[in-house]
Design a protein that fits this description.
Elements: E1 3-7, H1 16-25, E2 31-35, H2 43-59, E3 66-70, H3 76-85, E4 88-91, H4 96-105, H5 109-113, E5 118-122, H6 124-128, E6 132-135, E7 145-148, E8 156-159, H7 168-173, E9 179-182, E10 187-191, E11 194-198, E12 201-205, E13 208-211
Parallel strand pairs: 1-5, 2-3, 2-4, 4-5, 8-9
Antiparallel strand pairs: 1-10, 6-7, 9-12, 10-11, 12-13
Length: 212
């Protein structure tokens, strides 16, 4: 059974709760695939963040035998094969619609959705894991976009959420969409029909905001 973990951001490494949960959920540690948000440019930046997050796993006591970046330095066939082989897939942060277009261009949509291991999204990666991906101005996108995402999970998230800075945009969107506001350091774990919430997370629905 697949395990999906949606995160916002961890400042200075995984917090104690995240490290403990990740150690529990990640039982197979042979291969780690870091899927970029920008596939064909800024490779140096991609490699920098790959090293940063891989080191965060090491500091949490999680060591992979092999770890690699998935981006345009691979062919589509190679990318699909490497993602399918991984025990853990990391969908990185960045520009959300751009990342999803690369998923489509490199044929990774089905590969990620059908993966039976652990898939972890951060920020843009978390948004794109949803059945309905909601990109807001509030979250730093250039324009608001709503589209069909990977459908790994049936919940939509707003990363980097700050309770006392909720925008009118989010309130209006909550009339039609239920959105979970993920504060930094928080995360959601979905496995089958089970959803677990860790840290400071808020549910926005029908213009009502409540902590979960």
């Amino acid at each position: 059974m697949s395990t999906y973990i949606l995160t916002s951001m961890f400042n200075g490494g995984f917090n104690l709760q995240a490290a403990e949960v990740f150690r529990q959920k990640i039982s197979k540690r042979n291969k780690f695939a870091f899927v970029a948000s920008e596939f064909e440019k800024i490779h140096e930046k991609t490699d920098k963040y790959f090293c940063i997050f891989l080191n965060m796993f090491k500091e949490a006591g999680i060591h992979f035998k092999e770890a690699y970046v998935i981006d345009g330095r691979m062919t589509a066939d190679e990318a699909q094969k490497k993602v399918a082989e991984a025990d853990v897939i990391w969908l990185s942060g960045g520009d959300t619609p751009t990342q999803f277009r690369y998923f489509q261009k490199y044929g990774l949509e089905k590969t990620i959705k059908q993966h039976s291991g652990v898939v972890i999204g951060m920020s843009a990666g978390s948004i794109n894991m949803a059945k309905t991906s909601i990109c807001t101005l509030s979250c730093g996108h250039f324009k608001q976009k709503i589209y069909n995402g990977l459908a790994c999970v049936d919940i939509s998230v707003e990363p980097h959420f700050i309770r006392n800075e909720v925008s009118d945009e989010l309130i209006d969107l909550s009339e039609k969409h239920t959105i979970y506001g993920l504060c930094d350091e928080s995360f959601i774990v979905c496995s089958g029909k089970t959803i677990e919430f860790y840290g400071e997370i808020y549910k926005l629905s029908h213009k009502i905001i409540e902590r979960v």
